[in-house]
Write a structure and sequence with these properties.
With 284 residues, the protein is an alpha+beta fold. It has a single domain, classed as 4-Layer Sandwich (Double-stranded beta-helix). The protein has five helices and 15 strands. Strands 1-2-3-13-5-15-4 form a seven-stranded mixed sheet, covered by helices on one side. It has a three-stranded antiparallel sheet with strand order 12-6-14. It is globular. Bound molecules: succinic acid (SIN). The site of succinic acid has 8 residues, from strand 14 and strand 15.
């Protein structure tokens, strides 16, 4: 039996987990309890973990095989880990993840989830916000539900490609590939996806990577997507994390959107980030 205490942080999404020291080898019952909590609450917050890179990777592997992300420069000595960094000298620039998105939804196999381990955080600002896409789907107005049910959506790697290349200064300390025509390749995913572990349905569209609904031109699709994005990010489906150094946050990328709040110019922020896939989940 695991000794975890699970404290929901809102009525719809997120739970703080107490009673786990993930810097130590994790008992299989604790791993199972963490996975169950993740499928139930979509985002888990664990304070005071202070994981090193090897420990972060070991914890990640409890949820699925580590997945290497394209288009983003990883740590020089570890292709499976990204340093999400903004330096105090990075003023008036975009940040990694600074718009509502689910990670890399334009890939053929989008990640199942991700972990962020906080090393250095601003005294004020730099929060991250997540939104529950199961709740968003279940509360869609009837006409929007009809618009997405049984329909696919088209995703492209807009920030990395040519066709939708972002205007203006997007630089932050983290290095990303820009202007790659390969990133304009369209990928098709159901607009509503059933979670592989729970079967619960979640809305799967996001403003960063979804270009249109299948079978529609962009102009026809745009007003529907705008309403979907507005609904999907309503405050009552969301939770907001105030980071402390040592925090570990784990989220399910199939049932959430997230947003890195860029309100801390003049402060340093560094979090290590790993990603796991659901192509073959191990049983710990
Ligand atoms: C991201 O993974 O999208 C960035 C999250 C953050 O930096 O808060």
């Amino acid at each position: 039996m695991s000794q975890l205490t699970i404290k929901p942080v809102t009525g719809n999404i997120g739970a703080e987990i107490e009673g786990a020291d993930l810097s130590m080898p994790v008992d299989p019952s604790v791993a199972e309890a963490l996975r169950d909590a993740l499928w139930s609450y979509q985002v888990l917050f664990l304070r005071d973990q202070h994981l090193d890179i090897a420990q972060l990777k070991q914890v990640t592997a409890l949820f699925g095989p580590l997945q290497r992300l394209p288009y983003v420069e990883p740590l020089p000595d570890d292709p499976l880990v990204i340093g999400v960094q903004k330096k105090a000298s990075d003023k008036n620039v975009g940040v990694f993840g600074g718009n509502w998105h689910s990670d890399f939804s334009f890939l053929e196999h989008p990640p199942a989830g991700s972990l962020l381990s906080a090393v250095q955080v601003p005294e004020i600002g730099g929060d991250t916000v997540w939104s529950n896409q199961i709740a968003a789907y279940e509360t869609l107005p009837d006409d929007l539900k009809r618009a997405v049910e049984g329909r696919a959506a088209i995703h492209v790697g807009k920030p990395h490609g040519v066709k939708f290349a972002p205007k203006g200064k997007q630089r932050s300390t983290i290095k990303m590939v820009r202007g790659d025509p390969e990133a304009d390749r369209e990928t098709v995913h159901p607009a509503v996806r059933a979670h592989p572990e729970t079967g619960r349905k979640a809305l799967f569209v996001n403003p960063v990577y979804t270009s249109r609904l299948d079978g529609m031109m962009e102009a026809e699709s745009e007003p529907i997507l705008d309403r979907l994005f507005w609904h999907a990010t309503r405050p009552e489906f969301s939770c907001r994390h105030r980071w402390r150094a040592g925090d570990l946050v784990i989220w399910d990328n199939r049932t959430t959107l997230h947003f890195a709040v860029n309100d801390y110019d003049g402060s340093d922020r560094l979090l290590y980030r790993t990603t796991f896939s659901d192509e073959q989940r191990p049983h710990a």
